[in-house]
Write a structure and sequence with these properties.
The chain is mostly beta strands. It has one helix spanning 10-13; strands at residues 64-65, 71-72, 81-86, 90-92, 103-110, 118-120, 124-126, 141-148, 153-158.
């Protein structure tokens, strides 16, 4: 497969923009004035995101698919919004990369047989201290919604949302 990296030269990105002679290997956000001049200074960090902004277009996390298996792993840094289809009785292991203040969503789908159960690792704390009993119909969909305090997943749920 040919090299698919984008070259970052001054000719490609314009004068006074940060470049690397080989490839783009970092994200740099630059706010511009109406005349095209830079309104903010460059940094190697994304300091511009520390300033309050109003988004003018939709922002979202793409839903990713978790691998189904006897034990289901959930790496939160890459799967903030995830889906899994249960093909048997499963356990949702404690997630990795929890961040205090993080919000996470898991869409759980019953396979064509239905009646699958889901157990939960000890990091999951549920509303009313009661873990949800999933909907059991074939292809039923349940949503598990979480807020993390950095060490626990504080959860609630919406059942049979299909």
């Amino acid at each position: 497969m040919p090299d698919q990296r984008a070259l970052a030269t001054e000719a490609a990105v314009g004068a006074n923009h940060p470049t690397k002679t080989d490839t783009i290997n970092r994200l740099t956000l630059v706010e511009h004035n109406n005349d095209g001049t830079h309104a903010t200074a460059f940094t190697d960090t994304i300091g511009i995101l520390a300033t309050a902004r109003e988004w003018t277009a939709r922002q979202n996390f793409n839903e990713t698919t978790l691998a189904d298996g006897a034990n289901i792993s959930w790496a939160l840094n890459a799967n903030q919004c995830a889906v899994v289809t249960l093909a048997g009785n499963r356990t949702l292991d404690n997630p990795t990369q929890m961040v205090a203040g993080g919000c996470y969503v898991l869409r759980v789908i019953q396979d064509g047989s239905g009646s699958r159960t889901l157990g939960y690792g000890s990091a999951y704390d549920w509303e009313g201290n009661t873990a949800p009993t999933l909907s059991t119909g074939a292809a039923d969909v349940d949503l598990l919604l979480f807020y993390s305090d950095g060490s626990s997943m504080l959860g609630t749920f919406l059942l049979d949302v299909n």
